[in-house]
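To: structure subgroup
Subject: Chain for Friday's discussion

All,

I'm putting the inputs and outputs inline so they're searchable in the archive.
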Amino acid sequence: MIGNPVRGGSYVLRGLQLLPEKKLRVFVLVPLIINILLFSLALYVLFNQLPDWIDSWLSWIPGFLSFLEFILYPLFAITAVLVVYYSFSVAANIIAAPFNGLLSERVEQLLTGRKVAEASVKELLAIIPRSIGRELAKLAYYIPRLILLFILSFIPGINLFAPLFWFLFGSWMMAIQYCDYPMDNNNVSFSAMRSQLKKQRFTGLGFGALVQLGMMVPILNFIMMPVAVVAATIYWVEEHRD
């Protein structure tokens, strides 16, 4: 079964509904602050650098193809926005990884009734290197694909479809990024996690697409990280947890 993108997207909406739950508020706070700070910086970079970037890219177009600029300008703009948001998402997730893991753990407890022992300060500190290590494993998976996609974005003809490729890649990246938190908490290896998502790829793409779209909407993007963690945990409990 390749899955259902509508069902995948519905988990994001359910995550948004569950976010205000009183028992989760303290665990939502740190990821929320990190997301607000980094996406504010991303917006600042886009507003100040985007025109210069696009003008620089358009300067590579031969003069006889200048008539294509009105088509390529919006395509380059969309690609730049996706690249910037992807980059800042990676940075935000590395910094917030330990806190996202704790949030996912509490959501699973809320959904299943399974008791989670209170972690000591020593145990909380031990989570940090493990979480960052898991984020580095994701980077090792993303970066070769990211480089290939970046190269394809500058090949004439293929670059017309670059925004679509970036969006699909970003959607899959979001599914892997956030579904990894509940699976890591349940001792599912990174490779096993990817295999589980691939079995219902369209569900994962639907989930990731809505997360990605939410992260492109001003104001809404500030809360999308904790929303995505909550939503991914609901997804895990209902679709993958034994």
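Points worth raising on Friday:
The helical segments are 5-18, 25-58, 69-112, 121-152, 162-185, 190-199, 201-215, 220-239.
The mean pLDDT is 81.

D.
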